[in-house]
Amino acid sequence: MGGGGGGHDPFDIFQSFFGGGGSSRGRRQRRGEDVIHPLKVYLEDLYNGTSKKLSLSRSIICSKCAGLGQKSVASLKCPGCQGSGMKVSIRHLGPSMIQQMQHPCNECKGTEETINDKDRCTQCKGEKVVQEKKVLEVIVEKGMQNGQRITFPGEADEAVATHHHRDIVFALQQKEHPKFKHKGDYLFFEHNLSLVEAPCGFHFVLTHLDGRHLLIKSQPGDMDDWQTHSPQILSILPFLGVA
Ligand SMILES: [Zn+2]
Ligand SMILES: [Zn+2]
């Protein structure tokens, strides 16, 4: 209010038209146990579509020991605590009085399992899982939006307890474009006019995100409505469905 002067930002107009609060950026969602990776993309990538090859490392259950961590299928149960992780010691306090005390097992440190060194799986060194390198090709489809997610079901780490592979999710993060802004189904292009261009008509060539050249022009007098503002124009182009 009442700031006056130039520097009127056409994107403010667009914000008030579309009710954008601009607060969606900081929102991060966590869903279950999925592994979410941000994936930086250019606006051109979203407009034209692209694909990116990413190499990731994930842990999978050791094939040699089937996730046991040892060669034999004998029980892993700690002999010290019978797999409870706790030991009970009994103290005699008197002829008819005993005290029972529970403490973490000193042999397995409370993990409930011990692996005999001789029996330890040589492939995973008793870790039960091994690291696997995997190359994923992420297809960014034409018209995808900033923040949109691309899911690879079952491509994340394999859980030892359940043998269940979690999903890998890529969340698209669009880098700022120097000329275009994108919101929903529209692209916005801001162009500063000279003081002469605004009243007298103008034309300029706009290079679109796919390399096309568009001629943007006006006739003298077209911009009369804009003369109360600083001479900027805002071109609104469809983001999807370009014929
Ligand atoms: Zn134990
Ligand atoms: Zn193993």
Describe this structure in words.
- The chain has helices spanning 10-18, 43-48, 197-200, and strands at residues 35-41, 50-61, 86-94, 97-104, 129-140, 149-152, 168-174, 180-183, 186-192, 202-207, 213-218, 232-238.
- Mean pLDDT is 77; it is low at 1-32.
- With 243 residues, the chain is mainly β.
- It contains three helices and twelve strands.
- The protein has a domain at 178-238.
- Strand 8 and strand 9 (186-192) form a beta hairpin.
- The radius of gyration is 32 Å and the shape is elongated.
Features of the shown structure:
243 residues; mainly beta; 3-stranded antiparallel β-sheet; elongated; disordered N terminus; binds zinc ion; zinc; repeat
Which helices and strands appear, and what pairs or packs with what?
Blueprint: H1 10-18, E1 35-41, H2 43-48, E2 50-61, E3 86-94, E4 97-104, E5 129-140, E6 149-152, E7 168-174, E8 180-183, E9 186-192, H3 197-200, E10 202-207, E11 213-218, E12 232-238
Parallel strand pairs: 1-7
Antiparallel strand pairs: 2-5, 3-4, 6-7, 8-9, 9-12, 10-11
The structure holds zinc ion (2 copies).
InterPro entries: DnaJ_C (IPR002939), DNJA1/2-like (IPR044713), HSP40/DnaJ_pept-bd (IPR008971), HSP_DnaJ_Cys-rich_dom (IPR001305), HSP_DnaJ_Cys-rich_dom_sf (IPR036410)
Zinc finger (CR-type): 49-133
Domain CR-type: 49-133
